């Protein structure tokens, strides 16, 4: 499935019937050959959008997987890049494919994003495609931990893309996936938390602001616009303190989720 180097349907089924942690351990050797890995154009667009907000010294890739996010972070951070993930299998792949020597220095930490072991350690945190693994009730703790891990003035950034309309086949594909996962989790333990449509952007932004962040939305221009003129891709930038950057728009009142 997904080509000769990707996982088979049977391997994906075994993964889905496992815990999230063990499932990703199993998927790790073939993860980069699936659509679940964030595409390079998205990584490059995020790095380009964040570059004017720097310079940054130390960066964290939250839920780093096999380390794809270390490449844009290495372009932005001068001293160190850290990846954290709770899958040992994913981190093993990351260590093999990303050299530790810098600058910046690259290191990997096995840990839970909901209980970050850092205090005031970073001025930039990024995350790519991780929000489907968090339930709505986990966001307050997640964002409180992120804010504690950031230095004053530090930023947490992640890309978001306009969801498909109900008239698009992708809408029904994602909705169907979520429905199957809900049935699976109702029948089997431990649950495999991975939902594409469980969290709405508006709710995420509200929780960020409630946690004490100043939240901004920046357009990722390389992904074009929808028929109604709204951007297909945007970058959420949550700042630990301070006023919005010049040229950015505050999130309030500007989100359609």
Automatic annotation (TrEMBL):
Signal sequence annotation: none
Pfam families: Methyltransf_25 (PF13649)
Keywords recorded for this protein, A-Z: Methyltransferase, S-adenosyl-L-methionine, Transferase
SUPFAM superfamilies listed in its UniProt record: S-adenosyl-L-methionine-dependent methyltransferases
GO process terms (BP): methylation
Domain Methyltransferase, chain residue ranges per copy: 60-154
InterPro entries per record: Methyltransf_25, SAM-dependent_MTases_sf
Highest taxon, organism lineage: Bacteria
GO MF terms held by the record: methyltransferase activity
PANTHER family cross-referenced by the UniProt entry: METHYLTRANSFERASE, UBIQUINONE BIOSYNTHESIS O-METHYLTRANSFERASE, MITOCHONDRIAL
Protein name: Methyltransferase domain-containing protein
Organism: Streptomyces achromogenes
